[in-house]
Target: Hexosyltransferase
Amino acid sequence: MMLRRGFVLFLPRLVGLLVVACCSMSIVYMLACTPKGDNQQLAFPRVHSPTAKEGYEAILQEREEQHRNYIISLKKQIAQLKAELQGRTEQLKNMQNQYPDSLDIELDHSKPEKVQANLLAFLRSQVDKAEVHSGVKLSTEYAAVPFESFTLQKVYQLETGLTRHPEEKPVRKDKRDELIEVIELAVGSLNKPEGVSKAKPRVYTASDFVEGIYRTEKNKGTLYELTFKGDAKHQFKKIVLFRPFGPVMKVKNENVNMADTLINVIVPLAKRASKFRQFMQNFREMGIQQDGRIHLTVVYFGKEQMNEVKSILENTSKSANFKNFTFIQLNEEFSRGKGLDVGARFWKGNNVVLFFCDVDIYFTAEFLNSCRLNTQPGKKVFYPVLFSQYNPSIIYGHHDSIPSLEQQLIIKKETGFWRDFGFGMTCQYRSDFINIGGFDLDIKGWGGEDVHLYRKYLHSNLMVIRTPVRGLFHLWHEKQCLDELTPEQYKMCMQSKAMNEASHGQLGMLVFKQEIETHLHRQKLSSKKT
Model:
């Protein structure tokens, strides 16, 4: 009923807009045909000029011809608008007549046959609206929805991110199951006899599949085109399938009150006092001043620079009148997983949202709300994909000075990348963290502990919310590749370092810097000679 009312409301609006467009064109037409005022008179030749009469006639004839052509053009545009208006009106009327109740797909169990018929009609209309039988006019070259191709073993994809490859096996279960289902359906369709034939029909199998392409239009469905081997060497069978998307259905409507939802930000730390000072500036502005429903737990390893870190924490506490913090000191080798685990278990209050954070992270108050909204005890944990900053000295190397940190935090391909291979920043309720078993404390140093916890959640019945967020940034810092690493580890470390330094284009400019400077020098010499 909701969609039907939408059509009824939308139709008069569309008609009104097109009528206004027609009226506007008519006004333009009248204005164009109105004689010019005194201030816009043509520059006629002088009366006493020997060619005065011929000049008048030539100018008047030229102006008359221009008016005639312009009037013809306006009439054509008006006719096109009227035809488009009539076509759109008839199209909407036909859809309303054809599917009077098909868009009202509610679960009315008293009339199951009608619901099924309406749903089927709607799904068929999705095929007609999608680019299946014919193309549609697009505004720019970027508006086209690209296809991705696949074979029995591989998927060839455009949107690769940083962890996916241009060519890879479909590792995600939903994508693997989807493509298997499509191939099986196509094979079944090929093996259904068409008409009556005395010849023994050929039996197709998945091994006859050559390749396929598919693309998804988000509001219509997924189109698949599959090619199979034919009966002869250069013959093929092509099957076109379409998985239509059904109408949008309301699943839940609820009020969410986060006024009393506290977030405990847990930061493991060893040394790095200067980075901690920068982190506390961000924490004070976003966490204390703007959000206010926050607790900070710092788990510090060792004693070097500890007094400086404690002093920064205490100064912030005094200046901002902030008492919701905990400082835990461990006399042992740094372990990120151990620090986070100790910080989470140290909390003795009510169930709280835990935000596992690092000292080189910048977050906004909006992110803290996203952290609350995407976690639910016993149901949901939040794994945001943060935006990782490139080396500012490379990005802004051609500028007079590097902008302030706040000005650097913009999401563009020249300034950073979505760190979709990282799982260290996460929000979850403490009860879920304890029930899942916490971190693997056998993992020392940095790395590995976050993936292990992430896999625990994936293997549980909890829903993992994984999405890029605009309010969480990884600040650039120099990556050190130690001499103690094996050649293979060192190579991987350097590749990771390059990925974090700059974009592909910016690194290319550094590689070809000498060639560019040589070219500019030659251009300068050439301009001096001329």
